[in-house]
Amino acid sequence: MVLVLRDRADADQVDYLKAWLKTMGVETRAVVGNEQTIMGLIGDTSRIDMELLQSLDIVESVRRIQEPYKSANRKFHPDDTVVRVGDASIGGGGFAIIAGPCSVETEAQVVAIARAVKDAGAAMLRGGAFKPRTSPYAFQGLRAEGIELLLKAKEETGLPVVSEVMDISQLPLFEHVDVIQVGARNMQNFELLKELGQLRKPVLIKRGLANTLQELLMSAEYVMAGGNPNIILCERGIRTFETETRNTLDLSAVPVLREKTHLPVIVDPSHATGVARWVPALSLAAAAVGADGLIVEVHNDPKHALCDGAQSLTPEMFSKLAERLRGVHAVGARSF
Amino acid sequence: MVLVLRDRADADQVDYLKAWLKTMGVETRAVVGNEQTIMGLIGDTSRIDMELLQSLDIVESVRRIQEPYKSANRKFHPDDTVVRVGDASIGGGGFAIIAGPCSVETEAQVVAIARAVKDAGAAMLRGGAFKPRTSPYAFQGLRAEGIELLLKAKEETGLPVVSEVMDISQLPLFEHVDVIQVGARNMQNFELLKELGQLRKPVLIKRGLANTLQELLMSAEYVMAGGNPNIILCERGIRTFETETRNTLDLSAVPVLREKTHLPVIVDPSHATGVARWVPALSLAAAAVGADGLIVEVHNDPKHALCDGAQSLTPEMFSKLAERLRGVHAVGARSF
Amino acid sequence: MVLVLRDRADADQVDYLKAWLKTMGVETRAVVGNEQTIMGLIGDTSRIDMELLQSLDIVESVRRIQEPYKSANRKFHPDDTVVRVGDASIGGGGFAIIAGPCSVETEAQVVAIARAVKDAGAAMLRGGAFKPRTSPYAFQGLRAEGIELLLKAKEETGLPVVSEVMDISQLPLFEHVDVIQVGARNMQNFELLKELGQLRKPVLIKRGLANTLQELLMSAEYVMAGGNPNIILCERGIRTFETETRNTLDLSAVPVLREKTHLPVIVDPSHATGVARWVPALSLAAAAVGADGLIVEVHNDPKHALCDGAQSLTPEMFSKLAERLRGVHAVGARSF
Amino acid sequence: MVLVLRDRADADQVDYLKAWLKTMGVETRAVVGNEQTIMGLIGDTSRIDMELLQSLDIVESVRRIQEPYKSANRKFHPDDTVVRVGDASIGGGGFAIIAGPCSVETEAQVVAIARAVKDAGAAMLRGGAFKPRTSPYAFQGLRAEGIELLLKAKEETGLPVVSEVMDISQLPLFEHVDVIQVGARNMQNFELLKELGQLRKPVLIKRGLANTLQELLMSAEYVMAGGNPNIILCERGIRTFETETRNTLDLSAVPVLREKTHLPVIVDPSHATGVARWVPALSLAAAAVGADGLIVEVHNDPKHALCDGAQSLTPEMFSKLAERLRGVHAVGARSF
């Protein structure tokens, strides 16, 4: 349920209302928007009398929110959320590009790639230290050492870094990682999400292989319920019957999510297609459809990458693409 | 199997080769491309000795085509196919927009919409006379009368028209329809495809609800096997578990198909999303991803449309979108 | 909407009610069940005043049917429909087995298989004359000649026969075919369904690759709307992401359909799995889950079958399976 | 790669072979089967010369295993694995029934249900203490207290218990839980699987919402790679486009898995359908298809269950079903 409060509502009356709601077992979140103050009610509002609230002087309107997600709901927070990461920001109208290797392999590799993507205009560096591999016999990532090398690349270039955490026990290693990524296979690892809700660091949540957009928003709701509002959502392809591509990139996720939530939405065309030569076309489509950004795999020697080389762009291809992306975003859905 | 013939190959030797292949039960299709002459072999080529062919003077190289589609295969026909429809053409670099109502309802309705979409830059008019409805109790379309009204709109505006045929028995009514559409539910109506292969009129084949891109190409192959090369493929969303959208638009179909086939590929964002307000964003994405065109539903009174009003754009919205589309196409994947 | 009429309702009053409903544009279907007489109303019942009907002497109760399928709805026809085919019957408690080759290839082949399956207890023979093939270059079936050979096998063994029709134009050839099959890819060939509604011959409708159970019932509704109530539904696997099996057999279709419709439901484990050695286990599961029967592919020389040999049982395996099936059906869901 | 060793192979020569393989970076697992001794090679066997091994006196045959799963592979371990849990055992020919409430709610509730299912023949009790809920606002389970109440029920009835763990940090609480369950959403929580591989306690792995059977086997491989061979696999329905059922139960998983792996396979018809009245039919189908057992939800007051009441059987219905299941299993695929 949301209440829209009247302009210049009496502060004492607002406090009194909050206290009363608290006795009814309902928490409040006041969101000050550009145009109005919205008070969101979280908890079991089924016993709250809407007409009673509507009758209060300070209340302009009352509306029940049907959707199970509240904090993540745009009805609850009309303005876009902008997630700030160092000098970069995701959301609010721009198109942020995050790029880097699937795995951190050596210091030379990750630093070289970091420099290349920075020169090409990337706002952040991605690199995997803890790799989710379907097979226990496959390279599992450099783990703690991988985080250190990633942070070296951050030092060398000034680029903020994002990396995937796979278990709560690994979180202490992520102290200097700027954005913590929740992988597709962990989108409904609810214990991990609750833990991330205790932090204030930005969290990038990837949509699960077969999770609905509503389930993605509920995973965001888990993190927000803990008090952490800094969430970036990511569409990375869903599992379907088609076998030409690794997954099926669902670009309609972008307009649908922008309507339902205030959280920024980026796109990962690399894991979606699984094939490097199709990544540019889908990246341009992501810019045109109005996404807030892109997260894409770049490797300086894809043939010898320790994982996902087939879907990685070379630095040259990435640079050429990055140049084109902002122009397309500018004439795409965001300005329509 | 394809043979690349040497430049200025002796004509008599070429004829002799064709005749010999015929005795082996193999038909040939010579395709003269911009740069080379390719002779495609259709039929059971398993007994053909590749080395023998390679040794002929006139043959530059021989390659087996693994894919089950031959005529539709780009290896067989390297240059883009351009389908000409009156003054319009689909394929070859431009972005053709086809627009119109889901159903033809009255003469006034279809003529008004035709004028509006023409003014906005549409190359062709769509309109359904035979409607595939899940329920036998739903409006089935005006049928023969619907075709006549559509042709009236063609007369009034000069716009070529495309309409869906649902059964072989209806084909005589389509004599003056410029492009015959095979609906998603008929993509594997093989008897219908064989019949359309006998015509020379352009055929628009919509990808089935749960058909792979390879199956779509095999359906095109059915039509081409009959001798009709004028095919336009259409991605219109596939069926998945997600329920926010009517289907899931698979834009990766565009780069994947452009790689595998020479046939033009357009996108239908209306049936894909089922929701008018999301159609513009996905249309812009379709232009950016490099499609050859768009087919979109437009109705002058969506609230009262006899079918699919929820996904139809108003003429005003369509006009605004059409203005933007060509610019996005120009800076999208096709020029990357 | 359905009305339950009181026992021994006055016949004149019933006629008067029907006539009045007709003036309101609503047709009636009286269904006499074991326990009550139900009058189903078909058409636009939105203007009918339920309370008015409820107040009539002859009416015991009135209920709106929400589901879009009416004639196929069990609320409309509480007793199981039994489809009689020669001496065989499908529905009503038994377990009917339909078996035969994927394609009719030669007279010797189809007669031999017919004799074998008859000895093993099959109630009907299946055999394809018109084959739906993804590729235009694959064997398309013996067509008219195939039907003739199938009828020869019928003559030799007395087994009724079922075969797939692919287009309305082929129907004249099916005059002596006992059950006409609508293949999965034609489940929403609405023109074909309308035509089959004009016949009185039993129709076997296979669920489409990605069609919901409700869509399957609406396809049955198309046939029933034409006046043909003799429909057998068939679950044959749906398309999913899993690749070990050709499709994913959805056995929950059986209890769900038995609840919603009175039409009999059989299972095709051959096309579902695509692998002969898994067919017996799934056939036994189909019997246990309460299906009305099974349709399974049997070939006397699977390695050399012209299509789908990989999923065909040998006559020996079929015989062994058939012996076991009725016992399992007897202790399965139908007697629970 | 697997080697089949000759009967009464010289022990010293076997040790020598193992040592040599170790220097090549390959570990060995000897599996003594009923009929032969198999030595499985784990690791990178690409440099191992198969012909060289074949030439050794002690080696009868050598075969490369193509599948990415080795320890879980039946080629590696031909005999069925039997997982023993107290007096119960899962695998090896019987049909074990695991039953209990979705959530442990109160001591009275779980003890009453435990008694009822025990009387009806259940081999184990299930009960959720840590509940994976899509919404952070839904009941999350009684957690540590829930485990204690479950253990009380174990004490009262002697039934071994199975419960879901959601995070590595919770494992200490599971010390007296007999079988640890990995939920569908955690099937690819690789860090959790690695940790469970360190235990020797049985682990029940549920197939993920959209995971392939091969991915399920790779998740088992993660646990086995840690040295824990006590794994029970569970098919619980996959996510598809069909909406009548909560998921689509894929019973073909049973014959497919029995062919590829030696690990026991059970079925969960409750989460698969989501509807209590369809659970019996699918349970009977699971018995007929040859599963090693069933895990089903039972609640003594489904209308007031704190979660999943809609899919829970009453004790009476469960008792009636349990009586029927073993008989069906006996005449089903396992004895075919």
Structure commentary:
- Four copies of one chain form a homotetramer.
- With 336 residues, chain A is of the alpha/beta class.
- Chain A has two domains: 2-63, Alpha-Beta Plaits (2-Layer Sandwich); 83-333, Aldolase class I (TIM Barrel).
- Chain A has ten helices and 14 strands.
- The first copy, chain A, has helices spanning 11-23, 50-54, 107-119, 144-157, 190-198, 213-225, 253-260, 269-273, 279-289, 315-330, and strands at 2-5, 27-32, 37-42, 59-63, 83-85, 88-90, 96-100, 124-126, 161-164, 179-182, 203-206, 231-235, 265-267, 293-297.
- In chain A, helix 4 links the parallel strand 8 (124-126) and strand 9 (161-164).
- The mean pLDDT of chain A is 94.
- Chains in contact: A-B, A-C, A-D, B-C, B-D, C-D.
- Chains A and B meet through helix 7, helix 9 and helix 10 of A and helix 7, helix 9 and helix 10 of B.
What's the helix and strand layout?
Four copies of one chain form a homotetramer.
Chain A: E1 2-5, H1 11-23, E2 27-32, E3 37-42, H2 50-54, E4 59-63, E5 83-85, E6 88-90, E7 96-100, H3 107-119, E8 124-126, H4 144-157, E9 161-164, E10 179-182, H5 190-198, E11 203-206, H6 213-225, E12 231-235, H7 253-260, E13 265-267, H8 269-273, H9 279-289, E14 293-297, H10 315-330
Parallel strand pairs in A: 7-8, 7-14, 8-9, 9-10, 10-11, 11-12, 12-13, 13-14
Antiparallel strand pairs in A: 1-3, 1-4, 2-3, 5-6
Helix pairs in contact in A: 3-4, 3-10, 5-6, 9-10
